[in-house]
Amino acid sequence: MTQTTIDRPEVSALQQAVQQAADRLVEAGAAGVQFRVARDGDSFVVTSGVAELGSDRPVPADGRFRISCITKPFVAVVVLQLVAEGKIELDRTVESYLPGLLPYGDRITVRNLLQHTSGLYNYADSFQKPGDRFLRDRYKHYEPEDLIAIAAAKPLEFEPGTKFAYCNTNYFVIGLLIKKVTGRTHREEITERILQPLGLTETVLPGDDPEIPGPHARGYMQIGGEPVDVTLMNPSEAGCAGEIISTTKDLDTFFAALFDGKLLNGPEFTEMTTPLPPEMIENLPMGIGYGLGIMKLENDKKLDLWGHGAGIPGYATFAATTRDLSARVQLSFTIGDKDFGPEAEQAVIRGVNTALCA
């Protein structure tokens, strides 16, 4: 257990409540947990569990981790900056930018991709064979075009714009779109437009590098009934949809800058935070609306709360902020010696609500 302590009774009480929430998450199966909380100008970090199974090494409070799908808000910011620059139009079709990429690209818009209403098959579903498949392919390089081709070979799952279905293929197409209109990769654009201006020195886009640089906890997957260390992997399988490695500090800085108007102009920020209606959203923990690369989140106090959740072999992350930045939370935990199941999911939801609403 690690805490940064603030000597004020109300903050101390909140900190203890969050510590208990982190401890419950470990009891539910996490190996190690980091919680960063900011409330009304005060902030603190708590950790629980261990950085490596079989050791007593504590989770580093500044530990790096794979943020997986929280890569998507970074990508969406780049796209919306390009919209402001007149280089991309949200309601133009994929075919008009990337002719021939998809057999039905004339029916899918950039907006559909960003908000997961494209109807594209999720290439990742063809990979959902954990264990042996992961061990065999963990260092394999994947080209974006090859992953998109898996989806392009399938029929649309619904008419674009009529339903919501979370789909990583969407963001691989967006990665190619960014390269088409800028001549540079999404890694270069995110680095120049977001990481460097905000001083996010602990955030990297690793490409094919399987390592996690800097201090970090190790993540595990249940394979053959045993926890297997899956910390190392080639993240090109996640690519533009989920490759980033970061810290709770850098994630907090990113979301604070986004909602403070430092990354997007008013019209583009409004586009990003205009959610699909709740009745369209299914199977997103806490999700009651999806904008462009970011979710509107249900919570105990009905706060105007936005963020994103994420999962990748060994690691799970949740980031959220109120629109006015008065309450923010960044949570990362490593999967331990149990599968991540309903009990752990509920422990995450309870923990986030404790941090933001207690």
Describe this structure in words.
There is one protein chain. The chain starts with a strand and ends with a helix. The model has no long low-confidence stretch (mean pLDDT 94). A hairpin with a 2-residue loop joins strand 10 and strand 11. The protein is of the alpha+beta class. An eight-stranded antiparallel β-sheet has the order 1-3-2-12-11-10-9-8, sandwiched between helices. It has a two-stranded antiparallel sheet with strand order 4-7. The chain has twelve helices and twelve strands.
What topology emerges from the helices and strands here?
Blueprint: E1 2-3, H1 9-27, E2 30-39, E3 42-49, E4 65-66, H2 71-84, H3 94-97, H4 110-114, H5 132-137, H6 144-152, H7 169-182, H8 186-198, E5 220-223, E6 226-229, H9 239-242, E7 245-246, H10 248-259, H11 266-272, E8 287-290, E9 295-297, E10 305-312, E11 315-322, E12 327-335, H12 342-357
Antiparallel strand pairs: 1-3, 2-3, 2-12, 4-7, 5-6, 8-9, 9-10, 10-11, 11-12
Helix pairs in contact: 1-12, 2-7, 2-8, 2-11, 6-7
Order of helices and strands: EHEEEHHHHHHHEEHEHHEEEEEH
Mean model confidence by pLDDT = 94
CATH H level, superfamily name:
DD-peptidase/beta-lactamase superfamily
User: Helix- and strand-based class?
Assistant: alpha+beta
- Supply the number of helical segments: 12
User: Based on the structure given, which CATH architecture is correct?
Assistant: 3-Layer(aba) Sandwich
Number of domains: 1
CATH C-level label: Alpha Beta
What's the CATH topology name?
Answer: Beta-lactamase
What's the arrangement of strands in the largest beta sheet?
Answer: 1-3-2-12-11-10-9-8
Shape: globular
Task: Flag low-confidence runs.
Answer: none
Keywords: Hydrolase
Domain Beta-lactamase-related: 21-324
GO molecular function: hydrolase activity
InterPro entries: AmpC-like, Beta-lactam-related, Beta-lactam/transpept-like
